[in-house]
Design goal:
- By secondary structure, this protein is of the alpha/beta class.
- The protein has 2 domains: 123 residues, Alpha-Beta Complex (Aspartate Aminotransferase, domain 1); 237 residues, 3-Layer(aba) Sandwich (Aspartate Aminotransferase, domain 2).
- It is 42% helix and 12% strand.
- It contains 13 helices and 12 strands.
- The strands form 3 sheets. A 7-stranded mixed sheet has the order 2-8-7-6-5-3-4, with helices on both faces. It has a 3-stranded antiparallel sheet with strand order 9-12-11.
- Strand 3, helix 6 and strand 4 form a beta-alpha-beta unit.
- Helix 5 packs across helix 6 and helix 5 crosses helix 9.
- The chain is globular and about 60 Å long.
- It binds 4'-deoxy-4'-aminopyridoxal-5'-phosphate.
- The site of 4'-deoxy-4'-aminopyridoxal-5'-phosphate (PMP) has 13 residues, from helix 5.
- The site of 4'-deoxy-4'-aminopyridoxal-5'-phosphate has 13 residues, from helix 5.
Amino acid sequence: MTFELSDRVQTVPPSGIRRFFEIAEERDDVISLGVGEPDFATPWAARDAAITSLEQGKTSYTANRGRRDLREAIADYVADRFDLGYDPDEEIIVTAGASEAVDLAFRSFVDPGDTVAIAQPSYISYEPGVIFAGGEVLPVPTDEEDDFRLTVEGLEEAGADEADMLVLCYPNNPTGAIMPAEDLEPIAEFAREHDLTVLSDEIYAELTYDGEHTSIASFEGMRERTIVFNGFSKAHAMTGLRLGYALGPADAIAAMNKIHQYTMLSAPTTAQYAALEALDSCENDVREMVAQYDRRRQFVLSRFREIGMDVFEAKGAFYCFPEVPEGFTAEEFAEEVLREQGVAVVPGDVFGAGGDGHLRISYATGLEDLREALARIEAFVDDHA
Ligand code: PMP
């Protein structure tokens, strides 16, 4: 028997990142700068809280929207860190990773035929998410010349004034770009002027190395048209615990909760205890990890410059996005440096418009490995000069 696959599933190609992992898994000498997850373990206090909750037998479902004490802690945290005011009862939903929240938003707000503008290069899940929801993707490329920041000109050129929704991710995966308040303000104005709903993925908000993160929802008139996504995977090194959340107006969060309550019931309970502790007592752990990422960032940027590869000054997340030297496409470079030198990187094309000719380098890897990986990339570039 063969299954008849839905058109939506068939339209979406398999992840371009996975293919490289598969090649990398065939050998044991590969250093991977390919994965987008922290190399740190979850801070001990958060792990301990999870263990204690299990010991106490706290293994039931929680409220659909997540434990109330966790929602309260999230409300306090986002108020304190990002100047965002959300009501824990009506305007916050705790999800199985930010990934679930992103999917819920597409399914809650996108009708077949709606156009969703996505600032690109960007995280690989938005485009499939839009397609699974029946929407149409409008890529809005960003340029290295603008430090990969989104501009009103870019939005206009792409025709985003006609779109229904705009998806943003700053600090950005894969470029490491950030959007300072002064650059975000005209984007907020554009969204208001053209009546766009905004989905703002701020999962890397804690990971900025030059200036503080500003949320687009904090601008006047934006809170009512924006859903903010955040979570514990990146700053708190909790990827495997699968915990994220969305913030938004009550009716929007209620719509997302309608899908969530039928499809997920509630986010992982053990992870909710870990997250509560993470917000309560792990600020110093986050600060220490951020300091280490920053050291690695500076090291990687300076090594690429020494090697002679152009790289813009990534200021957030844990990625940098160097240009591929002449004579290679990004895909060729990634494939050959993996085969010849055993270094896994991701070609920029997989992240959409504006990503070609670049490589995504994750520095969520220890300095020793980064040193060795950069030496191998240098050898590769020298061999092919
Ligand atoms: N958004 C972005 C921009 C990401 O890079 C990732 C993880 N790579 C996610 C969301 C998914 O996060 P989570 O683990 O919370 O589902």
